[in-house]
Design goal:
By secondary structure, the chain is mostly helical. Helix content is 34%, strand content 0%. The structure holds zinc ion. Zinc ion binds next to helix 2.
């Protein structure tokens, strides 16, 4: 037996409704355009990627190898900063590898 179909789209599309929908679409479009033109606001918007913001560790001052002489690696011809036992990280690791390999302390 044929059941009468329920008509869901019976809501009349009045001109006022159409106007409202058009205005809404217009406003959204304008908003998107404005956002694209001036970039995202720099508020707490996790979505906005500020292009000038650098990530990660800030670069060390590369101008000159200015490590105070009393903080410098004790190895000759090494200008890096001491990390441990008077050696820079590179020389300290080299020393450590040497000791682990069975070498004697210098
Ligand atoms: Zn060194």
């Amino acid at each position: 037996m044929a059941r009468p179909r329920k008509e869901l789209s019976k809501v009349p599309l009045t001109p006022a409704l159409v106007n409202w929908a058009e205005a809404l679409g217009d406003a959204i479009g304008r908003g998107v355009l404005r956002a694209m033109n001036q970039g995202m606001p720099t508020g707490g918007n996790s979505n906005g990627m500020a292009a000038s913001r650098r990530r990660g560790r800030p670069p060390k001052a590369l101008a000159g190898n200015m490590v105070a002489s009393d903080r410098r690696c004790t190895m000759p011809d090494c200008t890096r900063e001491q990390r441990s036992k008077g050696l820079c990280s590179a020389h300290y690791q080299a020393e450590r590898r040497r000791l682990l390999a069975g070498g004697k302390p210098a």
